[in-house]
Each structure stands twice: as C-alpha cells, then as structure tokens.
C-alpha cells in the first residue's frame, strides 16, 4: 500500500453490525426509519424555536435549539455511512475519511455535552435566582455560552485526532464497528498504545464522568429547591428538570461506559454505540416536546398558520 500520513494503511474495513445478507436489509430499513425520525423530530424543534419569537428569545429554548442541531449533526456523522454499508458488501472507509469521522463525531458529541451542562446552569439560575435570571442569561450571554461550547468541542476533537495521527498503522485494518471511533482505531496501531490510551481516557472518559457527576449533583440541588416553591411553578419546574435529567442520563451513561475505561472491546459495545448514536438523538426531541406545554402550543400555532 501507499504511504498515507506516515502509515501503510490507506483504508479501514468496517465489520459493521452483521454480515448476513438476510439481516442487513432489515437493519437498513430499521435504521433508516430511526434516522428519518431523528431528522423530523430535531428539525421540528429547530423550526419551531426559530419561528416563534417568544421561544427564540428565551434562553432555555435557544439552548434546546442548539442541542437539537447538535443531535442532528451527531447522528448524521455515522448513520448515513452505516446505511450505505448495509446496502453493500464493500464496507470500507479511507484513512482520511476515518479520521474526519472521528473528528466530527467527537466535535458534535462533546459540544452536546457542553450544551447540556449550560442548560443545567440555565435551570439553576432560573430556579435559584429568578429575579436575576433575565440579567444573567441575556441574549449576549447565551451566544457566548453557545460559542464557548463549540470552541470546547473543537479543542477536544483536535486533541483526539492529533493523538491518533501520531500513531503508526501498518495492519491489520479491520474495525469491529459500524463507524470509526477511537477505541477500535487505537487497537490497530503498530506500537504500544498504553500512554495514548491513558490520555484518551483522561480526555474523554474522566471529563465526561466528572461532568455527569456535577450535573447529577446540580439537578439534585434543584429538585430540593423546587420542593419549596408554589404548586404551579413547582409542577412546571419539576417537568423541565425531569426532561433534562432523562436526556443527560441517555447521553452520559453510554459515553462513560465506552470512554471511561481502558480500550478493551466487549460484546455489548456495539449495542451501546447504537444507543448513543442512533436512539438517543431520536428520543431527545420526544422527551423535550412531550413534556413541554410551550413547545406543543408553539407547534400547534405553526401548524394552524401553515394550513
């Protein structure tokens, strides 16, 4: 093979979810439906928030719109490529394409984690300091926080990619997954990767775990504060925090499982990967819209206006 970035490997073979010609069409149809639902759900939230002035100017919905956009991008990084591979026996991806997929996968994923952290901060200010909420979470502050989350995602992803590019790859080139990710790619390096794995676990796993713990503590404090509020405000705040907590759990638990341990391959890894690349981006819009009266009312207004 030709040399590429100092390595003899020019492409990787993705073993995918199944090699059975009978199972692949079923998986293709299933994941196509899930991906279309992801586009529909997240696209609907983006359109609703951007079309409604009240929602667009509210920090919580501004952040929710950003989260839906990241969910849409996050799923798009992996699912279309997986669908194309389910329709062919030639399941390969170039070395450059693999690196690009890792970059955008971790960029969108880490940006989403930062946005979820900002959303927890937003709810804390709204519940614990309601009189100062509009001053603290003004439009400029929201844009700065959103921009900071994107910048953090770029820095995180560049760090991951640079560590991989410094590794030599001379074969084998088979990845036991349906997309390129760090745990599988690192195992194919032709060198001792112990130090790199520790750096990766520190950069991805421990940071994710710490963020998850901080968010759990934050929402526990919020729930304790909500108990002292009036019944009407209490019910609304409880519903909002419950939705946020469900999404946080769906996003963080699989990430902690995959990245907060040494890079060993387990049979459940593919199922967990499906959960946070396909299922979670589809469920997030349902969780936020079904439990949110303002979102449902705004969607009805847009629907009535369109017809």
CATH superfamily: Rhodopsin 7-helix transmembrane proteins
Low-confidence stretches: 1-7
The tally of strands reads 3
Structural class comes to mainly alpha
Distance between the termini: 59 Å
Q: What percent of residues are in strands?
A: under 5%
CATH topology: Rhopdopsin 7-helix transmembrane proteins
Structural commentary:
This protein has a single domain, classed as Rhodopsin 7-helix transmembrane proteins (Rhopdopsin 7-helix transmembrane proteins, Up-down Bundle), CATH 1.20.1070. It has a three-stranded mixed sheet. Helix 1 packs across helix 11 (293-306). With 307 residues, it is mostly helical. It has helices spanning 23-51, 53-57, 59-86, 95-128, 133-136, 139-165, 182-186, 194-226, 231-259, 269-290, 293-306, and strands spanning 11-14, 92-94, 174-175. The radius of gyration is 21 Å and the shape is globular. One of its GO terms (molecular function) is G protein-coupled receptor activity. InterPro entries: GPCR_Rhodpsn (IPR000276), GPCR_Rhodpsn_7TM (IPR017452), Olfact_rcpt (IPR000725), Olfactory_Receptors (IPR050427). It is found in: Cell membrane.
């Amino acid at each position: 093979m030709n040399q590429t970035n100092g390595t003899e490997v020019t492409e990787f073979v993705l073993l995918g979810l199944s090699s059975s010609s009978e199972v692949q069409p079923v998986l293709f149809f299933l994941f196509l439906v899930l991906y279309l639902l992801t586009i529909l759900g997240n696209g609907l939230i983006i359109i609703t928030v951007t079309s409604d002035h009240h929602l667009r100017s509210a920090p919580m919905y501004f952040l929710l719109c950003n989260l839906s956009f990241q969910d849409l991008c996050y799923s798009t990084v992996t699912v279309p490529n997986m669908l194309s591979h389910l329709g062919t026996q030639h399941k390969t991806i170039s070395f450059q394409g693999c690196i690009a997929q890792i970059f955008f996968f971790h960029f969108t994923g880490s940006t989403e984690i930062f946005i979820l952290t900002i959303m927890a901060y937003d709810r804390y200010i709204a519940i614990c300091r309601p009189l100062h909420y509009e001053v603290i979470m003004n439009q400029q502050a929201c844009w700065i926080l959103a921009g900071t989350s994107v910048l953090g995602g770029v820095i995180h992803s560049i760090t991951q990619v640079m560590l991989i590019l410094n590794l030599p790859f001379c074969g084998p080139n088979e990845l036991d997954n349906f997309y390129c990710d760090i745990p599988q790619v690192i195992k194919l390096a032709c060198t001792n990767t112990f130090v790199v794995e520790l750096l990766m676990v520190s950069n991805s796993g421990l940071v994710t775990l710490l963020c998850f713990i901080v968010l759990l503590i934050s929402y526990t404090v919020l729930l304790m504060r909500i108990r002292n509020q009036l019944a009407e405000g209490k019910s609304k705040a409880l519903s909002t925090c419950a939705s946020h907590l469900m999404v946080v759990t769906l996003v963080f638990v699989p990430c902690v499982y995959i990245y907060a341990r040494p890079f060993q391959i387990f049979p459940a890894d593919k199922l967990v990967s499906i959960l946070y690349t396909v299922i979670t981006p589809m469920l997030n819009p349902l969780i936020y819209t079904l439990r949110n009266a303002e979102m449902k009312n705004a969607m009805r207004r847009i629907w009535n206006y369109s017809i």
